[in-house]
Structure formats: structure tokens, C-alpha cells
Fold this protein.
Amino acid sequence: MKSLIVGHGGREAALASRMAESSTLFAFMGHENPSIARLVERTGGAFALGKVVDPAAITAFAVEHAIDLALVSSDEPLAAGVVDALQAAGIRTVGPTRAGSEIEWNKSFCRQVVSEIAPDANPRYVVVDAEDDVVAAVERVAGGGPVVIKPVGLTAGKGVRVVGPHLADNAAAAEYAKEVIRSSPEASVHIEEKIDSPEFTIQAITDGTHTVFPPATYDYPYRFEHDTGPGTGGMGSCALPGGLFPFVTQAHYDEACRITSAALDLLRAQGRHFSGCVNAGFFAMPDGVRVIEFNARFGDPEAMNIMSLLESDWISALEKIAAGTLSDGDLVYADEASVVAYLVAPPYPVASPDRFHFTVDEQAAEAAGAQVLFSSAIELAPGEYETLGTSRSVAVVAKAGSLDAARAKVAAAIDSAISGGLEWRGDIGVFPTPVTAP
Ligand code: GLY
């Protein structure tokens, strides 16, 4: 069995590490991710470096190597139609087509889907594409209350700005919305009421018809401890034994699963192919849930939680997904806690021309009970690395019977195995205050 992963982030490293357990791994990456490159080498596969938004190049690589099964689970390749191209070339592929992934790359389409299947689960929102309409829209949406500004297209988690943590007030929010609209003739923004409730995500895994719901995940999008600083792609994430959180009841979880299934049913009814994972984000509120967004792929880093807890064979599950025969028994999870912490260069998420040198002793991390998964980093020499670009550099993942034990493993692994001044949030695993159950 020859499998192919498209992408080069920590999420792809986690997915690839499970694919490499029972297949020969091939990879198409934008840069040489050290974790993925090692898995490729160990299993006797091959990798190519190129643009992960180039469907023709990826398809040519897959055809050249007679790939049996491909997995695409990152936003830009999906929006670029990589799954469409692989499928057209006869490659069995897990992942939504461009039409299926519109639920992520077009926030207005996502809100329309939710309006049809669960109108009460949408926050109040307005879509604006003219600067002159912004101030009135801010007032109309929130009646003076705080708002959230979301650029309609893909922003790698960094375009969303919230009054409070990111923007001083609604006037600053209006200025930001205008700035986004000015940035391109096609640009538009969602102006949404700000909801002050804890968030959770579910990495729903689907063959398009049947969906399996793993433990809920919790992401830490803010750069600094106590949820301060700019938004990031996610500084860490966790899952708990039992699959819920102190602020997520079984009723919240069940409602979130129902809404996610209904969204997938609607996509299918519209002829939009969707297989793989929906990273479905929700607010847990006293009266139920509200949809934050649907991502058309695994969350990064939440994929690492799910892959660390998965006890069954991932390649077999991917084959079932591709065949449209997925069942609950194909995805079995350990009833444990899983914690991921991302380490980043100090300026992150601000762009910096500097590269930061760091060292990683993967055996020391393993001895502490943790796994190291590289993301935007390159290997200079064995154990010596450099940060790359403006994304997250390296993740440390651990599971254990309790949250505290998993946190302790991650902290011990970082302490003993990684040096060089990268930064991470020590409060991964600290949760917001519970809300009253619905
Ligand atoms: N962790 C958030 C995301 O993957 O979009």
C-alpha cells in the first residue's frame, strides 16, 4: 500500500505518522518537514517539494508513484482543487473537493448552510463588501455590543479579530473591516455579534454519508497565556477522558454532532463531495451551541490529539472512508487525555526575516512519554533545526490517564528535549469557566 500526504505542517506530520504505521509513505510538501521526511525515508517512500496548491504537480507526483490512497487535509490545497485533480486522475483520495471545502473557504456559504439546517445556531451576522456600509452594519449586528470581524476567505486563523482581545472597541473593529475591504476588489467581511462563551471543536471524520465523532477538542488560539495577544493558528490543544470538557455537556456535544451531520447531509444533497474531517467549531452556551465555523479538514493542532488517541489502524479507516463504508468501529479511541503544545519563534505570529536556531533531542522527548512533530522548521544537522517563515515550528504531544499527567509529560519533554529560546504556552489544559448546562 502506497499512501500520499499533501502538506507540510504539524497536522500533516501527525496524520503521516499514523499512515506510516501500515503503508509506504509518500509526501508532497512545500518545505522539507523533518518529521514527514523521516517517515518517508523509514518506509521506503519518496517526497517532492513544490507548491501544495498546484493540483497538476501533485497529481503528476501521485501518478508517477502509483499512489493507492491520498489524504489532503489542509485548507489551501483543498480550496485549490487538489482533491478534484487527484480523483480525476483515478487516485483514491480522502478529502473534500473544492466545492465541498467551500464550507471553509467561503464564510458566507458556511453561514447559509447553518441558516438552512439550524438557524438558531448562527450568531447574528452581516456580510459587507463596501466600506461605506461598515459602521451601520456594526451597529445593526450588535446594537452597540461588541463585534467580531472575519474576512470571508481563508486566513490561516489569523484574520479574525475580536473586540476585546484584538480590537479596542467597535470603532476599531469598523476600521479593521474597512482595511480588509480595501485590501482587494473582491474582499468582503463578516461582521458578527461577539459571543462570550467557551469554545470547543469536534474533529468529525466522515465518508460523506456516515460520520464518526471522536472526543471533543479544545484549542488555544491566542498567542500568550491567559488568552492574550494576537490570534494564531493555535498554540496548543487538548482532549479529555470521556470526550467532553468542564464547560461542554453531553447535550452540547450531541447537538454539535447533529448540526455537523446535517451540514454534511446538505453538502451531499447539493452534490458537493465531502470526505475526511470537518473541524467543527462551536460555542457552548447555557441554551445550547452556536456554530463558530466549519473547517473542511482536521484542525492543526487538534489532529495531533485525535491521532495520539486513535487506537485502531488509520490506513484501514482511510480506506473505508475512500470506499464510503466507514462505521463507528473503524475508529477506536483511548479513553485518555491528550495534550499538544506548539513551540514558536518569539516574534510569531508577526512576520520576521530572522530564523531561530533550536535543538531537539527526540529520544529524550520519547523518554518523557511525548512525541515531537515538526511543522515550519528545517533540519540543519541531526538534532539541529531552524524555524522557517512565520508559522509554528514544532509541537510536543502526549497522552495519559489524566489531563495533569499529560500536561506534565509535555512540560517534561519540552524541558529535557528542546532548547534554543522557542516559546510556548504553559497554560495549555487550563479551561474557561463552565457555563450552565443546556
Ligand atoms: N486550530 C485551528 C485550526 O486548525 O483552524
Observations:
- Residues 199-419 form a domain with the D-amino Acid Aminotransferase; Chain A, domain 1 fold (CATH 3.30.470.20).
- The radius of gyration is 21 Å.
